[in-house]
Amino acid sequence: MLFMVTDGQANEAPIAAKVLVIGHRGASALRPEHTLASYGQAIADGADFIEPDLVMTRDGVPVARHENEISGTTDVAAHPEFASRKTTKTVDGHAVTGWFTEDFTLDELKTLRARERLPQLRSTAYDGQFQIPTLDEIIDFVAAESATRGRVIGIIPEIKHGTYFQKAGLPMEDRVLAMLAAHAYTRTAPVEIQSFEIANLRYLHGKLGKNHPNIRLLQLIDDAGEHPYDVVAAGGKLSYGDMMTPAGLREIATYADAIGPNIRAIIPLAADGTLGKPTPLVHDAHAARLELHPYTFRPENFFQAKNFWQGSDPKTFNEAGSIAEIRAYLDAGIDAFFTDDPAIGRKALDAR
Q: How far apart (Å, rounded) are the C-alpha atoms in residues 146 and 272?
C-alpha cells in the first residue's frame, strides 16, 4: 500500500488512476437539483461525472428525483388537479406523506416544475423554471455536452428504493440497463450504477459480467447503525457498520468496484464539531481493492466541520472552508467525491 506524507503525517494514497469530481445531483448548490440546468452547471464547472438519482413513473419511465416523494423538490402542491393524489405510503419502512412519482405518468410529471430543496440555505431564484428530466434525456444531454466540450463526462445513476419499486411492479434495474444500452454514448462512456441496497447490485453484477467494461458498481453506505432495506425486507440483520468492517468490505468487493460512505465515516467530527482523526475505513477498503467515493461536500458553513467555518452564520457560502475540508479527505486517500459545487471540488483537487 502506498502512502503520502503531509505535515508529518502518513496518509493513504488513492488507488484510482485519477481522483474524480462528481456533481452531486448536478451542481445542486447553484441550481435546483436533478434538472438539466443543474447537470449543465456541474459539467461547465468541471465535474467528471454527474449524478442522477432515479425513481419510476406510473408508466415505467426512470426520472431524476432524489426521492419518489416530490413535494419538497417540485411545485406539485400548487397544482389543484393533483390535490387528490396526496397520500401516505410506507417507503423503506418509514411512513411518508406527499405526492409520489409512481402515481403520475411521465406526461403529468412534465407539467411540474422543480424548486429548491433547501430554500432556508440556498437561492430560490430558479424555482419554477425547469422540468423533471428522464434518464434518456439526461444521457442525450450529457452526450451533447461531451461532444461540445471535447471531453468524456461520466454518469453515475443511483437506483433509489429498489425493493420498494420492485414490490410496486416497477423494477428499475433492467430498465436502466436497457436505456444505457440503447444510447451509443453510454455503451462506451464511463457509467457507475449505485445503490444503498445490496441485492440489486449483486443482480447487476451478474447481468453485466465482463461484457460491459465501461459500467462499474458502487455500494452506497449509510450510517453504521442503519440497515440496507433489502436486508430488512428479507428479515436479515446485516448493518452498514458490518459492511464497513474488513470482512464486510471483502464481501462487497465480490460484486462492486467502490463504496460510497458518508464523509464522516472516513473522518468523523470531534465532540466540538471540528474535524477529527481518520478512521481505518480508507485503508481497509483499499486493502479489499475497493475505491472510496464518499458523499457529500457542500459549500455552506452549515455542512462543514466547525474549524472551517467563516463567521457564525450557518447559511454563509464558504468556498475556502469547503476547499480545506475536501483537501483533508483527499489527504486521507479518497478516490472520488460527491460535491454540491463541482467548481469548488475542481479547485480543491487541481490546486493540490
A: 44
